[in-house]
Amino acid sequence: MENNFKFYNTLTKKIETVIPHEDGKIAMYTCPTVYHFAHIGNLRSYIMEDVLEKSLRYVGYDVKRVMNITDVGHLASDADTGEDKMLKGAKREHKTVMEIAKFYTDAFFEDCKKLNIKTPDVVEPATNCIPEFIKMIEGLLEKGYAYQAGGNVYFDTSKLDNYYVFSTQAELETLVGVRDDVDEDTNKKNKTDFVLWFTKSKFEDQALKWDSPWGVGYPGWHIECSGISMKYNGEYLDLHCGGVDNAFPHHTNEIAQRQQDQVPRLYGGVQQTVGGLDGGPTQCHGVGLHVQGHQIFHAPVESLLPDHPAQEVLRRRQTRLLVAVSVDDAA
Question: What pLDDT digit, counting tens, does each position of 262-295 carry?
Fold first, then answer.
């Protein structure tokens, strides 16, 4: 089909034309974590993704959007340290992890409904795909891109030519500084290595655990998105979206997992270079919502929507437009 659809690719830092692997079709992936109520900053990313998906459909693309529900493995620091966010929520509210996941997943989609955000074609909890994660990790171990240490399985970032794929040279030292701030894991060969699978050797009170070739444990956050995307988007992913805070380390680590000899099959699509290897989806990230120089993190969607039914529909549209078109004025 004729293709004139362009937008900013976070990976290449250029405005580019979408080039799907299969003509006329777009494989799209996004993910939330459901350990608490979404705030308007979270929902801005989903408004952006909703506008993008609907725009692609409008110009004629057949879009398959897949969304995972991260109900296990997302640790508090986003960098393999701290409590699992789901476990933290369960302790806070004296509920089980699965009760927390169900309650806040329902609340998330209710907020999406209020803002006229379309439900993705596929919504899959991470806990439904443990066999897929284990299979991917086994493949990385076989190819020498992962190693076992202290009971856990880690990805070896020293195997990559360029780990910091989203960074300019000027930003590199800042990102290294971020990783210096986290608690040191002495099992890691390299500071930037990340966990693919945790076993009972860490976080003994982890609520959700599964058998694996490496012991009873649970998957790391980053392998979850890769496995679910492969299961439902197939061999090629064309468009990967999220908030700008997902670019590092989450999406950086997702790309790292695929920088091996299966890249053309696992992470193909757009004709571009990813870490020195051909193939990889367009990366689209929404920036934070700022008002008069202040970033809005924690405002719930209810604070912007009145209870009065006569005003609700209009205010939904106003809120969606305000959040979608607001310019990042923090710089």
Answer: 444 433 333 333 333 344 677 887 766 655 555 5
pTM: 0.80
Encode 38-55 in three state secondary structure.
CEHHHHHHHHHHHHHHHH
| Termini Cα distance of the chain | 39
If one compares 11 and 139, the residue with the highest pLDDT of the two is 139
Considering only CA atoms, which of 180, 256, 232 is closest in space to residue 69? Answer: 232
Three-state DSSP class for 250?
Answer: helix
| Letter string b/e over residues 157-179, b meaning 16 or more CB atoms within 10 A of that residue's CB | bebbeebbbbbeeeeeeebeeee
The rounded radius of gyration (Å) of the Cα atoms in the chain is 20
- 3-class DSSP state for residue 251? helix
pLDDT digits (tens, 9 = 90+) for 199-242: 865 556 667 889 999 999 999 888 988 899 989 998 788 998 88
Which residue, chain included where needed, has tokens 């006329």? 24
Distance, in Å, from the CA atom of 285 to the CA atom of 288, rounded to the nearest integer, reads 10
Displacement of CA 83 from its chain's centroid (Å) = 18
Q: In angstroms, rounded to a whole number, what is the distance separating the alpha carbons of residues 233 and 65?
A: 8
Q: Quote the distance between the C-alpha of residue 177 and its chain's center.
A: 22
- E strand or H helix that includes residue 313: helix 309-325
- Least confidently predicted of 60-74, 114-128, 294-308: 294-308
DSSP string, 168-232: -HHHHHHHHHHHHTSPP-TT-SSTT-EEEEEETTS-TT-S--B--TT-SEEE-HHHHHHHHHHHH
Angstrom distance (rounded) from CA 264 to CA 239? 15
In the block, residue with structure tokens 């890691």 = 188
Q: What's the CA gap between 46 and 330, in Å, rounded?
A: 21
Give residue 196's region: left, alpha or beta (phi > 0; psi -120 to 50): alpha
- 242, β-bridge pairs: 285
Q: What is the DSSP letter of 37?
A: P
Cα–Cα nearest to 73, from 191, 226, 209: 209
Residue 105 and residue 69: Cα distance in Å, rounded? 8
